Amino acid sequence: MQLREVSPSDHAALHVLWMRTPGIQLRAEDAYVPFCAYLARNPGLSLLVEEEGTIVGCLLAGHDGRRGYLQHLLVDPSCRQRGIATALIEAVLARLAAQGIAKSHVFVLDAAPQALAFWRARAGWSEREDIRVFSTVECNR
Ligand SMILES: CC(C)(COP(=O)(O)OP(=O)(O)OC[C@H]1O[C@@H](n2cnc3c(N)ncnc32)[C@H](O)[C@@H]1OP(=O)(O)O)[C@@H](O)C(=O)NCCC(=O)NCCS
Question: What pLDDT is attached to residue 54?
């Protein structure tokens, strides 16, 4: 298992993985240009795992100076239950901590039961019952 930082040239391969993984919801921000901008704004925080030159897992991460945010965690079905997601999460959280970010969030869709089960089973993570997320986009205001 080879863990390394995500780079712009990984976009095409990652997009294929995201597209075929239930539980990952793609948005306009997942296109190449905003993806590169995200990596540039959050250097060294998004990581992937390769096996024999093929990407088999990925986790995007960034922070706003106060809280960290994890997105698009996935592991290829053929490589699950081997600790790859755990390795990605631990490495990303260590990198966030090194940048002074002690607390991080992950938003999980109600429509992604496998993802919900994964995060509910993870030690050290608690599901918030006291928060509702409100969102806006510029063109709606
Ligand atoms: C969720 C996902 C990333 C887990 O990847 P993984 O590499 O198999 O996870 P790990 O091997 O690191 O598993 C860590 C632990 O979680 C458990 N686990 C894994 N998948 C689980 C699931 N769906 N539900 C409950 N527990 C799960 C493992 O049994 C393991 O427990 P253990 O430490 O007691 O042995 C993978 O199933 C996936 O890509 N799912 C589809 C995409 C997705 O839903 N992503 C989340 C978006 S927020």
Answer: 96
